[in-house]
Amino acid sequence: MDIFVNLTIAGLSTGMMYYLLSSGLSLIYGLMGVLNFAHGSVFMYGAYAGVLVFGLTGSFTFGIIAAIVVGAIVGYTMERLVISRVYGQHLAQILLTTGLMLVLNELIKIPFGSNILPAFQPEALQSSWQIGEIVIVKYRIFLIIIGLVVATILNAVMAKTKLGMTVRAGVQNPEMVQVLGINIKKVFSFVFILGSALSALGGILMAPALGAINPEIGLMYQMTGFMVVVIGGMGSLTGTLFSSLLVGLASSYTAYVYPDAATAVIVIVMIVVLLIKPSGLFGKGAE
Amino acid sequence: MPDKVILKVKEMETYIGQYHILQGINLEVHEGYVTVLIGRNGAGKTTTLRSIIGLTPPSKGSVEFNGEMIHGLPPYAIARKGMALVPEDQGIFSQLTVEENFKIAMYKEDKQTLDRKDWILDIFPDLKPKLKLKAGSLSGGQKQMLSISRALVNNSKLLLIDEPSKGLAPIMVETLANAIKQIKDHTTVVLVEQNFWLASEVGERYYIIDDGQTVQEGVMADLIQDKVLQKRYLGIGTKE
What we know:
The structure holds two protein chains of two kinds. In chain A, the strands form two sheets. In chain A, strands 1-4 form a two-stranded antiparallel sheet. Chain A has one domain. By secondary structure, chain A is mainly alpha-helical. Helices cover about 75% and strands about 5% of the residues of chain A. In chain A, a hairpin with a 2-residue loop joins strand 2 (about 130) and strand 3 (about 135). Chain A starts with a helix and ends in an 11-residue tail after the last helix. Chain B is α/β, with parallel strands linked by helices. Chain B has one domain (about 35-55, about 75-235): Rossmann fold. Chain B is built from nine helices and ten strands. At the A-B interface, helix 7 and helix 8 of A face helix 2 and helix 3 of B.
């Protein structure tokens, strides 16, 4: 029982990090049809910015803010300078964003090198609670809470605001949104900034859980991020949340039973889901 | 005609990919009238509407709307100048509620707009009890009503409607005809229509489009009498 609870908490907290990484990916693909292979790099930049500012100021909150700001700036620059020129051209998007990923991953090595950079948990969250045999790591609970808060805010924005309405409408029919007098380019930029900021937030929150970061973490988690989006259904934030938690739990349990299969199980989950529902858990499919 | 020309299209040409779809469209739409664009399948009627509102921008020619050149502007900017489109596929956001479909279209939520929404709902009373439902759950006819209603909510000066009768039951086509008759007192309408009954029922002026060109224009009442023209360009052998 104690092991099950511990694995569940670990799985949920990892799942929440996947959610932060994937929700942006899902929005960006769902609304703009952009396959952004540089999304993981933003995750990594968020991690570096956050770890650095946390180290300098001693405040984890400042670290989080720095990550979000850097993520938003990198995302906006990327969208305006590069991605906005290749809307609707999938092959060009894949090639360009893959190129961007390589450039961003190399650029970070100039100041920090390719070695690992240690990432610490904030002092207040370093300890854990012990209930019988169950050990609850505070930082993991913190991750779950942050994930839930972000998911709640994001869902409220999508459900209640005109902007959210526009994004939901744009996912289905961007052309019609324009015909209704809405400048979809501005909405695209906003979604890109939002998605990138979320990814960077995922980066800084994941860093202390990993204990150290390196320029490759973005690439490492990006593939999982894409699989989470596919499992949940493109463009569905609820789907992404469920799928993130499912993937987090599946890899956590598997890591205990058969550690070598912890990554493979994500692929297996994806295959099973797609066999049953090709558009993903909450995907609407082609209408 | 002494009336004000609200839309003037001159020698408009449009390519889609390599295909030269429109090869010279000339239109003059008079304010307060229903102008019908008719022609066979693939003649370029839909592309004409899409080019006017900027979705498939013309490569040559000019589009003047309300005294202003609008060709080359993005669709949202053209829409903001007072033009609305009801596309062939209705363009309903099925994941949004009927109410949200209205809301997303509203530039302002002032009293005037809300009053206009009430007026529209009086024209299409079927939509009233469905406001909270997902638009995807509506029937084909109701979706068409929603699409037209949504286009009207901002007091647009010009409404472009693309084949509204497509796929609708005859009874719904009649409802639609009545609705368009009510709408035309408030806004100018350009209607693309294959259903000759609907076109003749609501249309006042017509343009025939053939092979991407406007080949004939005139008053609808004349076309209704002209069997030769109907047969040549529309393939209509007998009158309904």
